């Protein structure tokens, strides 16, 4: 369907294309190390052609839809009730009508993913949110989902894809996703690093791991990284201090609620200290 891609890989209009399973199925047979080696090789080729400068890297994230349905979500249970819960759902598969049980035969989750780890305070907040969610959904024009449930990563898990997490972006539906963290060299927009994370994590929590991995990759390629560019989602005092410690200049805007420090401080650049002067 993409003529530019066909041209790039040397196919004409009437040439027979490889069968889709060459990509969609065969790739599942290779370990992660193979993909990492291929990625590093392609990046090296781009560097040899002068397409990567290294000094300025832009970082951003994007959700990746998991191959799992929200309808298959299972309810987590407290640790002391886990065995009783498992016995119940094995014998009475449709006993709990409020929480539909999965239709798949294999539960790929481990014990830790099936146990509630949320505190009483967090569970109380989820209960309040569930009431509001149900009320708001029932009031939608033409809504047929009476008494619908609010699902949370604290209380639910996917048995078919336990590493997937419920997440949502403004204006989008709640889905089971992963979160892709992508780094791009600003010279020619070449991707220099990419990795998937759990979708319930925040960008600013993942920045140190991204920087460590990317810094090592660029250093191995003989490139010097100077500037880190990212959006507000990566902003935090800890991250600013961390990037400064790594010798990187950060171009990350603070959150909209940030108002700056108190007035009256004078910075002495030569001796690196601030002096407060009352107004």
Automatic annotation (TrEMBL):
Residues covered by region (Disordered) = 93-165
Describe the location of the Transposase IS4-like domain by residue ranges: 171-254
Q: Listed GO molecular functions?
A: DNA binding; transposase activity
InterPro entries named in the record: Transposase_11
The domain of life is: Bacteria
- One matching Pfam family is DDE_Tnp_1
Ranges of Basic and acidic residues composition bias in the record? 95-123
Biological process, per Gene Ontology: DNA transposition
Q: What is this protein called?
A: Transposase domain
């Amino acid at each position: 369907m993409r003529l530019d891609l066909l041209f790039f890989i040397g196919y004409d209009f009437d040439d027979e294309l490889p069968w889709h399973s060459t990509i969609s199925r065969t790739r599942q047979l290779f370990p992660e190390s193979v993909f990492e080696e291929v990625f590093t090789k392609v990046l090296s080729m781009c560097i040899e052609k002068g397409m990567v400068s290294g000094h300025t890297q832009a970082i951003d994230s994007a959700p990746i839809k998991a191959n799992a349905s929200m309808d298959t979500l299972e309810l987590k249970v407290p640790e002391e009730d886990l065995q009783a819960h498992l016995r119940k759902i094995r014998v009475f598969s449709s006993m709990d009508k409020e929480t539909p049980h999965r239709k798949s035969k294999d539960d790929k989750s481990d014990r830790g993913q099936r146990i509630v780890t949320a505190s009483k305070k967090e569970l109380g907040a989820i209960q309040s949110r569930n009431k509001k969610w149900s009320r708001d959904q029932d009031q939608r024009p033409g809504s047929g989902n009476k008494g619908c449930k609010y699902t949370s990563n604290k209380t639910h898990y996917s048995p078919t894809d336990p590493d997937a997490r419920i997440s949502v972006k403004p204006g989008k539906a709640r889905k089971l996703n992963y979160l892709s963290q992508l780094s791009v060299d600003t010279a020619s927009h070449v991707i220099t690093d990419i990795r998937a994370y759990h979708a319930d994590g925040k960008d600013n929590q993942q920045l140190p791991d991204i920087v460590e991995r990317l810094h090592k990759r660029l250093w191995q390629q003989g490139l010097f990284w100077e500037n880190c560019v990212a959006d507000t989602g990566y902003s935090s005092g800890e991250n600013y201090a961390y990037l400064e410690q790594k010798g990187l200049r950060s171009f990350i805007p603070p959150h909209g609620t940030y108002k700056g420090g108190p007035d009256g401080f004078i910075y002495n650049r030569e001796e690196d200290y601030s002096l407060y002067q009352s107004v």
